[in-house]
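Lecture notes, continued. The same structure-token format from the folding unit now serves as the input rather than the output. Read the line below as a description of shape only.
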């Protein structure tokens, strides 16, 4: 997660667990709902979590509605594995073709997930 002065990753993880949003997700999953977890990698090593479900796509957010940003997939694993989510698909945000500096062509969500990299949520 994003490191802030005076707060460790463990502190931020505990805060996320206390978040009503994570509790809402836990309850939603307990009702038997299913989803696909997308770990979207942004520039500079940041990751956000997008949740694909029958009703659309949601983001994992804090109590203020801001996307939770993680500095490593191990923090995502530590948050989602206790909820019973064992894996996800890592994708990369579309910004531009870094090789030649041209904008990329948008890709649909199904293709994005189909061509992403499967990641296991396992922290040792």
């Amino acid at each position: 997660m994003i490191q802030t002065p005076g707060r460790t990753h463990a502190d931020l993880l505990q805060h996320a667990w206390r978040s009503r949003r994570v509790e809402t997700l836990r309850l939603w999953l307990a009702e038997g709902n299913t989803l696909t977890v997308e770990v979207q990698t942004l520039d500079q090593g940041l990751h956000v979590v997008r949740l694909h479900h029958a009703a659309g796509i949601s983001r994992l957010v804090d109590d203020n509605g801001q996307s939770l940003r993680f500095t490593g997939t191990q923090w995502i694993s530590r948050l989602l594995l206790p909820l019973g989510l064992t894996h996800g698909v890592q994708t990369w945000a579309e910004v531009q073709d870094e090789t030649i500096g041209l904008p990329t062509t948008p890709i649909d969500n199904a293709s994005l997930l189909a061509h992403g990299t499967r990641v296991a949520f396992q922290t040792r």
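Point for the exam: DSSP finds four helices and six strands in the chain.
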